[in-house]
């Protein structure tokens, strides 16, 4: 006789804490540890020099006609790879209205832009050594870096790279990030890249912990957060992709409290997004107004902003050792700076809701100042970016952080910016800032990096650098 009780009842689903209660402490210990399991901090530059000498690296400018697998598309003039993969250089027409009904001041411009719709992976592997979290950093060559090799994430690859559209070798250690163990994920978020040079570009920023053995080559070394913090104070050493991922690491909040609650900050930011109306549409590269097309460069008619150029590359530690490609070459050294004030003993930075033509969602939070000063040299003082002269004229005693950092070397040629955090007084930076600016704590910005498209890549770099300033060594280097 069959039972009338039916199948056994399913057991209740297990629940767990929404946050790992011990992670913040483990991050803090790593940030305070300046002696790593593999290298002393002062040995990193020598290791990078050794890896540079061990390989064959060469970057040469070439005419567009020597681009090999790249060509200008008939009709549109767009610069495309014959595989249809990687990226394209197209035209962009941007119209920006400011005001709740799109009736405020109006800007309009056209420019070349890099369109790369695929999402890449920027992943850093983490592992404990002697009870301290270390992070696996790579000595990676990028053609646009002035010094070629810089500290990079464990994995830094576009979808075209890791699906081998270039017919090169496999991306090492990729499996840790393509199908990560959900119990081992520390960071996993889509973040934007430069909205003034890219159209809707974003990458998956990841930190994944492992307990197993990692077969890493001589191009990889394990470093603590404290070691990386020290290296962030040096010019052109930690690359942009690594800085972006590191900005998302959940450091503990040492100074709770802020001028504005998190809800107030989000409401202000939502209002900024709502009041900006930015309409960007793709146009043929051949039709972009105000730009000259030459044999070796596409450049602005007044020599400002940037150029599109072509290079031939050889990099013996890359998945593909030899190739040609276009790069964007900025004109002049950029500046990205936070003004800093303390309110109630808590440091705050002045952030700007910045609209850029390539952003996915109108505005993102940016540094107080973000520009290339030379692009404004011809304008009257009133038309220069707010706070630019305050930053450029800052007394050295008021500079909390300063270093020249390279931007993304895979798409930009010698793109570098001077990153600063500058103490300001009430006269230079009042409690009640102008429209488009707000005071926020670094902890509030760190919380926002858990979500995509809130902080732009320049603000994330500065946040990583502020984390570096806050890190204190537990022991000698």
Overview of the molecule:
The chain is of the alpha+beta class. The protein has a domain at 262-277 and 330-470: EvaA sugar 2,3-dehydratase subunit (Nucleoside Triphosphate Pyrophosphohydrolase, Alpha-Beta Complex). The chain contains 10 helices and 25 strands. Strands 6, 7, 8, 9, 10, 12 and 13 form a 7-stranded mixed β-sheet that branches. Strands 19, 20, 21, 22, 23, 24 and 25 form a 7-stranded mixed β-sheet that branches. Strand 16 and strand 17 (306-315) form a beta hairpin. Helix 5 (225-231) packs across helix 10 (457-470). It is globular.
Outline:
The chain has 477 residues and is of the alpha+beta class. 17% of the residues lie in helices and 34% in strands. Strand 6 and strand 7 (132-141) form a beta hairpin.
Spell out the blueprint of helices and strands.
Elements: H1 23-31, H2 44-54, E1 57-62, E2 70-72, E3 79-81, E4 88-98, E5 106-115, E6 120-129, E7 132-141, E8 149-152, E9 155-157, H3 159-162, H4 175-178, E10 185-192, E11 198-199, E12 202-209, E13 220-223, H5 225-231, H6 240-247, H7 262-275, E14 276-283, E15 291-293, E16 298-300, E17 306-315, E18 322-330, E19 334-343, E20 346-355, E21 363-366, E22 369-371, H8 388-392, E23 399-406, E24 416-423, E25 437-440, H9 442-448, H10 457-470
Parallel strand pairs: 5-11, 6-12, 19-24
Antiparallel strand pairs: 1-17, 2-3, 4-5, 4-14, 6-7, 6-9, 7-8, 7-13, 10-12, 15-16, 16-17, 17-18, 19-20, 19-22, 20-21, 20-25, 23-24
Helix pairs in contact: 5-10, 6-10
């Amino acid at each position: 006789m069959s039972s009338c009780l039916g199948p056994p009842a399913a057991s209740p689903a297990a629940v767990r804490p929404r946050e790992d209660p011990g992670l913040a402490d483990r991050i803090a210990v790593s940030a305070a540890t300046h002696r790593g399991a593999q290298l002393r901090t002062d040995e990193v530059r020598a290791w990078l020099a050794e890896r540079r000498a061990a390989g064959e690296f060469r970057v040469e400018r070439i005419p567009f006609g020597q681009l090999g697998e790249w060509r200008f598309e008939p009709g549109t003039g767009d610069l495309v790879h014959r595989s249809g993969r990687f990226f394209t250089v197209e035209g962009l027409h941007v119209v920006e209205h400011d005001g709740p009904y799109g009736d405020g001041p109006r800007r309009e411009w056209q420019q070349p832009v890099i369109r790369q719709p695929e999402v890449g992976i920027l992943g850093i592997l983490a592992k404990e050594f002697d009870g301290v979290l270390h992070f696996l950093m790579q000595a990676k060559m990028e053609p646009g870096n002035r010094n070629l090799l810089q500290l990079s994430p464990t994995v830094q690859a576009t979808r075209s790279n890791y699906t081998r559209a270039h017919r090169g070798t496999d991306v090492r250690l990729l499996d840790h990030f393509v199908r990560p163990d959900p119990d081992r994920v520390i960071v996993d978020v889509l973040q934007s890249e430069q909205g003034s040079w890219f159209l809707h570009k974003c990458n998956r920023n990841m930190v994944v912990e492992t307990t197993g053995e990692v077969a890493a080559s001589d191009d990889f070394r394990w470093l603590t957060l404290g070691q990386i913090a020290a290296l962030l104070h040096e010019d052109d050493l930690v690359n942009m992709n690594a800085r972006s991922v590191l900005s998302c690491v959940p450091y503990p909040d040492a100074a709770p409290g802020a001028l504005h609650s998190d809800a107030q900050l989000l409401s202000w930011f939502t209002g900024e997004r709502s009041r900006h109306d930015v309409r960007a549409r793709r146009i043929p590269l051949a039709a972009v107004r105000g730009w000259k097309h030459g044999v070796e460069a596409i450049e602005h008619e007044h020599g400002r902003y940037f150029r599109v150029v072509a290079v031939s590359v050889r990099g013996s530690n890359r998945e593909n050792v030899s190739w040609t490609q276009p790069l964007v070459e900025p004109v002049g050294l950029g500046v990205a700076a936070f003004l800093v004030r303390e309110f109630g003993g808590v440091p705050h930075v002045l952030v700007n809701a910045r609209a850029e033509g390539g952003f996915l969602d109108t505005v993102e939070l940016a540094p107080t100042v973000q520009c290339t000063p030379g692009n404004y040299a011809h304008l009257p003082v009133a038309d220069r970016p707010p706070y630019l002269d305050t930053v450029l004229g800052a007394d050295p005693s008021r500079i909390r952080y300063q270093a020249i950092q390279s931007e993304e070397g895979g798409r930009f040629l010698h793109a570098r910016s001077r990153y600063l955090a500058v103490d300001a007084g009430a006269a230079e930076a009042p409690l009640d800032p102008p429209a488009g600016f707000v005071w926020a704590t670094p902890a509030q910005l760190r919380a926002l990096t858990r979500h995509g498209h809130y902080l732009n890549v320049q603000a994330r770099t500065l946040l990583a650098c502020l984390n570096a300033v806050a890190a204190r060594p537990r022991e000698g280097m």
